[in-house]
Amino acid sequence: MEAIRAEGLVKRYGDMVALDGVDLEVQAGRVVAVLGPNGAGKTTAVRILATLMRPDGGRAVVGGHDVVRDPVRVRGLIGLTGQYASVDEGLSGLENLILLGRLLNLSKREAKARAAELLERFELTEAAGRPISSFSGGMRRRLDLAASLVGRPRILFLDEPTTGLDPHTRNGLWDVVRALVSDGTTVLLTTQYLEEADQLADRITVIDRGKVVAEGRPGELKRQIGGQIMHVRPTLATDMDAVGRILAELTGSTPNRDENTGLLSAPAADPLLVSALARRLDLSGIPTDELGLRLPSLDEVFLALTGHNAATERNAA
Ligand SMILES: Nc1ncnc2c1ncn2[C@@H]1O[C@H](COP(=O)(O)OP(=O)(O)OP(=O)(O)O)[C@@H](O)[C@H]1O
Ligand SMILES: [Mg+2]
């Protein structure tokens, strides 16, 4: 069964086309990652699906209800964690969650119990009485996620849930998402991190400049760019030029060269190229620390699909 289906979503801001016919599908109980660099249209898509904004074209059905015709029904089924925390700064974590519970028509007792349970789950019990303004970024993010769970949503939208979090906090959030999914929650998350999509998602929709550029399972996407990547790390940095020339000759493509790691890599259509490379290096008397084949990373997939590098744009933004 589908929990989310969007067809041909279009959204314009003046002349700017933020979404240019986006299709999205999420099966119930699954995690789909919408992956894309800054400005790709991720937040716009989530806001439309969460009924916070109307599309200019196309349609979307969430939990069986049309987001434009039946927004109230949709809101009753979903939880949303925004890219920017949506909690009241002046109130404490506990007060925020109780308030939300009351807004969702829980009794005072139920609201308190639910708040305490969520604070515990997100390791916020100790800080529960402090105003949000004293929370760290990671604590805010966890409280924001807790807030979106007060109403036990069946469908959860997470807009860049881990951007700016340290690795420990990020791993903690990943565990929470996995636990929610094993309880049957459907999750649509957006991310700029290819590794995050790879870790959490059953399927990935890659969007770039308002268009879907690829869709599939993480492994399928990796295979889409074809074959494997041959990589080699010469022991001496002074050998990098010579190794680059040999790699180029064998693979027929310009090798990728990372001065920081000393690694050179190039797509290898034929796995036998590795032994050819080993022989050539041996004949030339070039020692290596590392030599082998691997599947391409999602960063390399993104580059191949869009012609530009997600990481570079991210850092430039
Ligand atoms: N309210 C707005 N008015 C005008 N343009 C907007 C508005 N909101 C978004 N845009 C533009 O629409 C495009 C898509 O924005 P959106 O926020 O959906 O991207 P995103 O994928 O969420 O990016 P990020 O990774 O930075 O959060 C961007 O070019 C953005 O500048
Ligand atoms: Mg965004």
UniProtKB/TrEMBL annotation:
Signal peptide residues on this chain, from the entry's feature table: none
Q: What is its main location?
A: membrane
Q: How does it sit in the membrane?
A: Peripheral membrane protein
> Which compartment or compartments is the protein found in?
Cell membrane
Give the ABC transporter domain ranges: 4-234
Q: Which SMART domains match?
A: AAA
Q: Pfam families attached here?
A: ABC_tran
Secreted listed as a keyword: no
UniProt keyword annotation of Membrane present = yes
Q: Which GO terms describe its molecular function?
A: ATP binding
User: What InterPro entries does the record point to?
Assistant: AAA+_ATPase (IPR003593), ABC_transporter-like_ATP-bd (IPR003439), ABC_transporter-like_CS (IPR017871), ABC_transporter_ATP-binding (IPR050763), DrrA (IPR005894), P-loop_NTPase (IPR027417)
Keywords from the named record: Antibiotic resistance, ATP-binding, Cell membrane, Membrane, Nucleotide-binding, Translocase, Transport
What family does the database annotate?
Belongs to the ABC transporter superfamily. Drug exporter-1 (DrugE1) (TC 3.A.1.105) family.
Listed name of the protein: Oleandomycin transport system ATP-binding protein
What organism is listed for this UniProt entry?
Streptosporangium lutulentum
